[in-house]
Amino acid sequence: MDSLSQLALGAACGLAVMGRRTAAWKAALWGGVAGTLPDLDALVDHGDAVLNMVLHRAESHSLLFLALLSVPMGWAIARLHGQMALGWRWVAAMALALVTHPLLDLMTVYGTQVLQPFTDEAYGVGSMFIIDPLYTLPLLLGVGAALRGRPSGNGLNRAGLAVSTAYLAWSTVAQGVVTLQAEQSLRALGLPTDRVLVTPAPLTTVVWRVVAMDGDRYHEGFYALLDKGRPIRFTTHAQGQALALEHAAHPHVQRIARFSDGFFRMSQTDDGSLWLTDLRMGQEPNYSFHFNIGPALAPGATPPAATQNWMRIDTRAGLRWLGQRALGRDVAPPGNAPLTDTTERTP
């Protein structure tokens, strides 16, 4: 999730555990620090855009490592403020603030290696977009109420935590509803349903994006909860399976294939450059993680450093479309051709 959400969650956790045992600003400050700390790994440049992607949310997001870190961190804070009698209380506050960071990240589709060092598998529920105001706002209001020092502040902070957690639960329910609708729509079109990705559109859990892999093709569609059962209409795109198989030994192809759980495409431009695109984040024709990995690699050769080309959607057009879809209106996404009654096939 975004840094503001993680900071607010950490601060709320610090306040919830410490209560009135210490100044509210101290609990919020250190909770916010702990809630933000795991994302400092983003500052590490591995010299390659693909490596920067797959190595983010790794050891710094390990539940075990963060739980262990909470012990010296909590006692150090207690010593700093002369509150050694509250040492274990500070440890508990830091543990909650630290551990909830990767657990929140786990709700996004990016992939978080929460079980390091036992496995480097990246897990993701995919029911939350990286920025969602309806999740963050209750946390901010609760923390703000607690910092104002009123008697009801701690209760409002806990209420904010409860509401935001309930919203996470709601997102998984909505994801399940849309998944069933997606499978029905795909079956009606004679398309496979064994590899289907359902993730929320930006900033919301009422509009959802569906990607279904189908051999050398993938199908993209959108469903809003106010569509009320209307079949999803898909556009079809080339996945570049033959190209991926041809370059299967390339380290970056292997990394992206594994990290994306197979939801990627590969293409080649006229100058011979190979491109890898993670299909989980973005929407046609714009994707956040679109990499130039250089020309075809000779056997045993070291790949050149990959570069990332952000493919950004026009914000104004995107928000206008999102608002229309949230109301259940059947309009085409920005950059896509007008929708028809059948699945479209694009080269």
Q: What are the salient characteristics of this protein?
A:
four-stranded antiparallel sheet, about 45% helix, about 350 residues
Describe the structure.
This protein is α+β, with helices and mostly antiparallel strands and 347 residues long. The protein has 2 domains: 3-124, no CATH class; 177-345, no CATH class. The protein has 10 helices and 11 strands. A 5-stranded mixed sheet has the order 1-2-3-4-11. It has a 4-stranded antiparallel sheet with strand order 5-6-9-10. The longest helix has 36 residues, at 153-188. The chain is globular, with a radius of gyration of 22 Å. The two termini are 34 Å apart.
| Order of adjacent strands in the largest pleated sheet | 1-2-3-4-11
Helix count? 10
Strand content: 5-15%
Secondary-structure element pattern, one letter each = HHHHHHHEEEEHHEEEEEEHE
- Low confidence ranges: 337-347
Structural class: alpha+beta
Main sheet attributes: strand count, strand direction, barrel closure: 5 strands, mixed
Calculate the terminal CA-CA distance, rounded to whole Å: 34 Å
**Rg over CA atoms:** 22 Å
The domain count comes to 2
Q: Return the average pLDDT rounded to an integer.
A: 93
Count the beta strands.
11
Assign a percent range to the helix content: 40-55%
C-alpha geometry: globular
